[in-house]
Design brief:
Largest sheet: 2 strands, antiparallel
Distance between the termini: 68 Å
Helix content: 55-70%
Order of helices and strands: HHHEEEEHHHEEEEHHHHHHHHHH
Radius of gyration: 22 Å
Strand order of the largest sheet: 1-4
Number of helices: 16
Strand content: 5-15%
Length: 404
Amino acid sequence: MDYAIPTQFFTKLTEHSANLINNPTLSKYIAFIPIVLIAFLATFLLTPLIGKLAWSLGATYKPLQKQRGKDFDNPEKAMHKVETPSLGGLAVTLPALIITLLSFQINAFTGPILLALAVLIIGSTLDDIYNLDSRIQFGYQILAAFIIAISIIDLSSIGIIDQEILNLSAYTLKFNVFSIPFSIALPGDIFLMFWLILCLNAVKWIGGSPGLLESYSGVIFTLIFVLAVRTVSEFTSTISIAMSASLLAFLFYAVPPEKIMSGSSGKSIYGFLIALLALIVDAKISTSIMLLGLPILDAVFVEIRRIIIHKPKSIKELLKINDATHFHHRLLSLNLSRLQVLLVETSIALLFGSIAIATTGAMRYFSVIFGLAVLLLLIVLINNKANKKQKEKEGESPESKYSY
């Protein structure tokens, strides 16, 4: 449920645009044009400045090199050929956050969301600059999810169609601290924290190929915007379309050959915000699963594969495994270009996300099951094909390429 209270700035901005057209349905979307323009121009102009800041702070990706005494990622995962500045996520998220601050009053609903995003922005920016230990990264992710969990935003139940099948608020505690309301619903809030962290990292892991993370996230934010307008969720409509417009502007710099990368300061925000907004606007896990189906299934598939192959003795050891087996890596191994990989995965996001938005009732749940089955089959087939191609390359001697 959306408890955000619009400010006079937001009301005047959207009313003026909505009055430009008589069609009441279309005017709901037209009303957000000023926000689109402001976010797009702000990111487009801010990105080069953030890039210069990243260079001056040494916040860059150096392929096949070490940074601050730590080994870089697996060389096979390095998709960029030259040193590239990070921190680009700041150019995307800061305009969206400023627009949100100007558009809505800070209250028990908006405050925790903005605070959680601030924690992620600060933590991930420091990670881009200092290459923080994975335990510290996980720490600020947990803190951000915890802030949402103890706020008035609760995951109270999971249902099928219109029937509640699992009550997640059996133990609920509501209290005030300095007039600030808090709400803890168990076990729902524990599941909510897990869900936010899972989605954050699942989306983060698709950022291995330049422009892919931004294009994928931009599509999902746009679909959430459509759903939010339909359900009259002004807060979600505003922040989702602002993020979408900012990501579109950022793509001018991020598509191959990339001039800047989102870095941790973008990767840590996009998935977290998508998962949170999808729950706020629709209150159904099914929609979130469809919107984030590819990165979630890819993450689960990769982790299961690593457990089977590497047989790690602990979760810590599992998290340290760093190979090039994500879906975009497998597509690249099939000789697709980085731009083609971007188009393939973005198209998948648009297709299955549109199905999630368009379907309702029983059809939505059928779509979830069918869509996830198709996605899983696609991941398995691509991995099998990539494995065969890799074995063929390994078995080919230098002389065999010239034999007839």
